[in-house]
Design goal:
With 278 residues, the chain is an alpha/beta fold. The protein has 2 domains: 9-64, Roll (Vcp-like ATPase, Chain A, domain 2); 68-255, Rossmann fold (3-Layer(aba) Sandwich). Helix content is 23%, strand content 29%. It has helices at residues 66-72, 82-91, 109-118, 131-145, 181-187, 201-214; strands at residues 9-13, 19-23, 29-32, 35-38, 49-52, 58-62, 99-103, 123-128, 151-155, 167-172, 188-198, 217-223, 230-233, 236-239, 249-255. The protein binds S-adenosylmethionine.
């Protein structure tokens, strides 16, 4: 049985699924609308326990999933939403043992998803221009994942260049990814994958132009993801009224032999044409 430990970040969850984050510390007291509970009553309790506050309100004490954690952790910069984190890991094909480059580190949300996916045999290199953001990210990452020996965070401006070579994957979440594309073209290994995440289409256009210009990228694709949650209560079975309608556009490209014509690929056109398919 895994129990909640001192120093750990946990979430208390009410019946409406509202989550309240706290870091367990012996002697501290958690307060919610005038009700309290001592952290000592939570430390050592099993993950998922029902606990009772001073005036009888009952909450679940849970170790948060990574998605829940990133939405509540302290932020320097805006994080990538969990709906996009999952897609990035799958579409950029982040695999155990991969050498992955990331910029900027921001609050560390993507870094954590990448660390989990590459496992102990892989390595994440992450550049962040701002020292304070890098510090916040390192704290967020260590508090959730513990010390990571396979993470190198550098306080560096990625527009000036990338030190690492033979990278398997390169992921950018910053305002001007097109300025990184020339560096990406030499830092990635052949067959490696480029991905950038930006909120607006003019940024996508400049990025795709830059990818075409360096002439070593192919299979360029851009898409966004929409996640619509549903209300399922008795006969009220319908989409929820609110949703995150926009987060960012994802652009992917594959580094290949120079000379193979680059250009856009429609997702529809790229559906597999498997000649062996029955
Ligand atoms: C939107 S945030 C990244 C959030 C991060 N992906 C996450 O999920 O927590 C963008 C970050 O890029 C950093 N940044 C902007 N320009 C940069 C550059 N030229 N080199 C390195 N980092 C840069 C910013 O300081 C900021 O922290």
């Amino acid at each position: 049985m895994t129990v909640l430990q001192e120093g750990e970040r946990i979430h208390l969850v009410d019946r409406k699924n509202r989550q309240y984050a706290l870091t367990l510390k012996a002697g501290d007291v958690f307060q919610l609308s005038g009700e309290t509970i001592a952290h000592d009553l939570l430390i050592g309790k099993p993950d998922g326990m029902l606990v009772t506050l001073s005036r009888g309100r009952r909450l679940l004490a849970l170790r948060p999933t990574l998605s829940e954690y990133v939405l509540k952790m302290p932020r320097g910069a805006q994080v990538i939403y969990p709906k996009d984190l999952g897609v990035i890991v799958q579409w950029a094909d982040i695999y155990p043992g991969a050498r992955v480059f990331e910029a900027g580190t921001g609050s560390g949300a993507l870094t954590m998803a990448l660390l989990r996916a590459v496992g102990d045999r892989g390595h994440i290199f992450s550049y962040e221009a701002r020292e304070d953001f890098a510090q916040t990210a390192m704290k967020n990452i260590e508090r959730y994942l513990g010390p990571s020996r396979n993470l190198t965070v550098r306080q560096k401006d990625v527009y000036e260049g990338i030190e690492e070579r033979e990278l398997d994957r390169l992921i950018l979440d910053l305002p001007e990814p097109w300025r990184v594309v020339p560096h990406a073209s030499t830092a990635l290994r052949s067959g490696g994958i480029y991905l950038s995440y930006v909120p607006t289409i003019p940024q996508v256009m400049q990025t795709v132009e830059a990818l075409n210009r360096v002439a070593v990228f192919s299979m360029i694709q851009t898409f966004e993801t929409l996640l619509r949650t549903w209300n399922i209560e008795g006969r009220s079975v319908r989409p929820d009224h609110r949703m995150v309608a926009h987060s960012g556009f994802l652009t992917f490209a594959r580094k290949v032999d120079a000379g193979f014509a680059s250009g856009g690929t429609d997702l529809e056109d790229s559906a597999p044409h498997d000649e062996d398919e029955p």
